[in-house]
Amino acid sequence: MENVDPVVPESVVASAETTENEKNAEEFGRETLAETSVPQGAANSAGHEMVTSGTDKVPGGEVAVSQSGMPTEAAGSQTETVAGQPEAIQNQPVEYTDLQQITLDPDWEYADHSKINTGAAVLYRAPEECGRKGIIIGVNAGHGTAGGAKVKTLCHPDGSAKTTGGSTAAGATEAAAVSGGMTFQDGTPERTVTLQMAQILRDKLLASGYDVLMLRDGEDVQLDNVARTVICNNVADCHIALHWDSGDSKNYDKGCFYISVPEVLKSMEPVASHWQQHDALGADLVEGLRGQGVTIYGKGNMSIDLTQTSYSTIPSVDMELGNAYSDHSDAILDQLAEGLLQGINVYFQQQ
């Protein structure tokens, strides 16, 4: 992830925020994930396009996929959550079957902006016995695309220049298709931890009745940030990218926050139509984490010009879950996942 510093409140005027963002971006050590796309065909009742996967064509809101299995008996025992829903015990292997791969449809809007798109996202469907909600959560495990740092894609869908700096300088029109990510102090690559985090969150979401679109479901996926978000925007009801911050020169866990949209970009489409949704989702996720006793950095958000939110047409947020000095043990990742789950619950209860 890129490094960020003091939080810029969304209420400040554009000129003041731009100045502060420049300061933040200088310390923001990496470009966050993902760009988005808007479908170009007939939308379903949830407002999503039809999703092409192999020979199947299914609507994004009510996805007609093969039923994914609950954790099999071999996956170990179950426990009960506070809400009474079964949840796989941490550290027990969880197996799912009959999953659906979702590939990039070249007819989707902005699909032609993608440069790396031979891979596939994986759609998991919550079992009916878990009280399936018919809501798809896009979970994007940051980084993890071999060769992605050597390829460039547009920062904004209209080709305009970045307004804040970072690993990609302000004024640049292109950024790394997928950056390599940072390394934790114990030598663990960020991409490894984001995948572990995504898998734990996936299991909690499925046990709570949410369907889950895993944009990266293994160590590597050949989908760049544009492709990941184009797929997510055409299939999911929200997009949550998982990262840890880097380059902040701090030798302690700085805490969690989300990346909000700079004031200067709020007149640019598709940002203008969706930034309030991004902020609402981000704020609920931060409060969910806070409720689990997780450290929150500053006011819980930072305004930075990211490709993810610059392209997003669904509620979308980059969550920074700490930095290179953060504990990333299974117990901590489980705590973080529980906080994110609670935030997701609150967000969708309000919709």
Give your account of this protein's structure.
There is one protein chain. The protein is α/β, with parallel strands linked by helices. The protein has a single domain, classed as Zn-dependent exopeptidases (Aminopeptidase), CATH 3.40.630. It is 25% helix and 17% strand. It is built from six helices and 14 strands. It has an eight-stranded mixed β-sheet, with helices on both faces. α4 packs across α6. The longest helix is centred in the C-terminal third of the chain and has 21 residues.
SSE layout and pairing:
Blueprint (H helix, E strand, L loop, with lengths): L13 H14 L22 E4 L2 E4 L18 E3 L5 E3 L11 E3 L18 E4 L11 E6 L10 E3 L19 E3 L13 H18 L3 E4 L10 H11 L2 E6 L12 E5 L10 H21 L4 E8 L3 H5 L4 E5 L9 H20 L2
Parallel strand pairs: 7-10, 7-11, 11-14, 12-13
Antiparallel strand pairs: 1-2, 3-4, 5-6, 6-10, 8-9, 12-14
Please sum up the structure shown.
The chain has helices at 14-27, 190-207, 225-235, 271-291, 307-311, 330-349; strands spanning 50-53, 56-59, 78-80, 86-88, 100-102, 121-124, 136-141, 152-154, 174-176, 211-214, 238-243, 256-260, 296-303, 316-320. The chain has 351 residues and is an alpha/beta fold. The chain has a single domain, classed as Aminopeptidase.
Q: Please, how many helices? A: 6
The largest pleated sheet is described as: 8 strands, mixed
Give the tally of β-strands: 14
Secondary structure: helix percent: 25-40%
Mean pLDDT: 80
Oligomer type: single chain
Structural class: alpha/beta
- CATH superfamily label: Zn-dependent exopeptidases
CA(first)-CA(last) distance? 30 Å
Strand content: 15-25%
Please tell me the CATH architecture by its name: 3-Layer(aba) Sandwich
State the CATH topology: Aminopeptidase
According to CATH, what is the class?
Alpha Beta
**Order of the strands making up the biggest sheet:** 5-6-10-7-11-14-12-13
Shape: globular
- Summed up, the domain count is 1
SSE order, one letter for each helix or strand: HEEEEEEEEEHEHEEHEHEH
Low-confidence sequence ranges: 2-91
